[in-house]
Amino acid sequence: MPNRALIAASLVLACSRPAAAQQTSQTAPPPDLLEQQCNDGLAASCNELGVSYANGTGLAADPARAASLFDRACKGGIATACYDLGILYHHARGVAMDMARAAGLYQQGCDGGVPAACTNLGVIYTEGSALPADPGRAAALFTRGCEGQNYAGCTNLGVLYATGRGVATDYGRAAGLYDRACAGGDAPGCTELGVLYQNGQGVTADIQRAATLFQRACDGADPIGCTNLGVLYVNGRGVPVDFLRAAALYQRACDAGYPRACYTLGDLFVSGQGVPVDFARARELFERGCDGGVAPSCHDAGLLHANGQGVARNGSQAASFFQAGCDGGFADSCHDLGLLYANGQGVTVDLPRAASLFLRACGDGGAVGCTNLGALYEDGKGVAADLARAASLYQQGCEAGFAAGCTRLGLLYASGRGVSSDPARAAALFQRGCDGDDPDACANLAKRYEEGLGVQRDPRRAADLYRRACEAGLRTACEPR
Hints:
Radius of gyration: 30 Å
Number of helices: 25
Structural class: mainly alpha
Helix content: 55-70%
Order of helices and strands: HHHHHHHHHHHHHHHHHHHHHHHHH
Strand content: under 5%
Largest sheet: none
Shape: elongated
Distance between the termini: 41 Å
């Protein structure tokens, strides 16, 4: 399984649902009394009753009723009610989603002294979802939230310092804010601080400390913390290698709704590390990850559908998942979708479409995409034949580490097609391809040594290379000479 990079959390909202209103006594008044007091114009009672309806405490949950009560309380000057109503508009609970309305309500709450409202308004200014993006304004709001002991505000302000949005990049400042947030019980703050310790940014690198922080974040129900801890167990960094433990952590994060954890858990079910090999389970997990917007997860789901692993082979389904991965910016998905269009697997053959997808994959750094696009230009399939363009694309693929790209470029130099004939250059490229375990390259290099083309003739070296190509599965290299 490939190593996974640790993930820094995105900005976090201060609260996903209304917090309990301040009580004037240890025993909350009964709902019917709160109702009467609210109807008599007591805004605080409207707010307290709204909290009960929002959270389903003492009453059946009714977010629409809660929204109505928060609205009355907000208009009556209860700042926390404005904040709570903003959350409902933010998450479409009991009311239609309206981010502009949520922003206005958070502003009222923030102006009324509710630190969490300042934090949530800062998130909106950072994202630019309902208001024009203004990271400087967001930083000021997160500062207000943090100073008011809303620790999600501290975490979010740290994110801005770590990423240089709205403030100058300052990892040391970010680390201090994350530490304050983590100590205050904000689990994402522990995750972010762990990433800094893992990377040695603003603090001395300490992978054991990172593991401890990820554990603390995971214990605090932050799924990214669980996922990052799982990555450490897979790679044996700061903790012993323990795939079973990693699988449990990924499962916990996946169940908590973090799609990237579903993807990483799917990898374990494909490789059989810590869990039995189970392609059907892997497919389910990859599809969950894809539904959550994880482009590589879409790609891996597509591979299982294309190969008939854990599900009946279905090229059309594979194409759908590859398209989702490609749209998400994953170069391998663009490439593999291009292969389906080139070969007519699950889709109608469409070589211009294949060329477009290979181009997209190549532009995103996909060495195989560059090479396959080069082949289309060499053969004039789906694009006008252009040997010079083919050579350039093969060069890109070769430089990016794809052995077949070196081999294809070597063939052009050997024949002088699209480039000036250069036997020595061809031999060097075949050597590079062979070193990358491309049997075609080994066989072509063998022929160079056999005939003394671009290299000193060496029949023994040629025989060794033919043998290597044969053992790698190239049957023509096995023929007696």
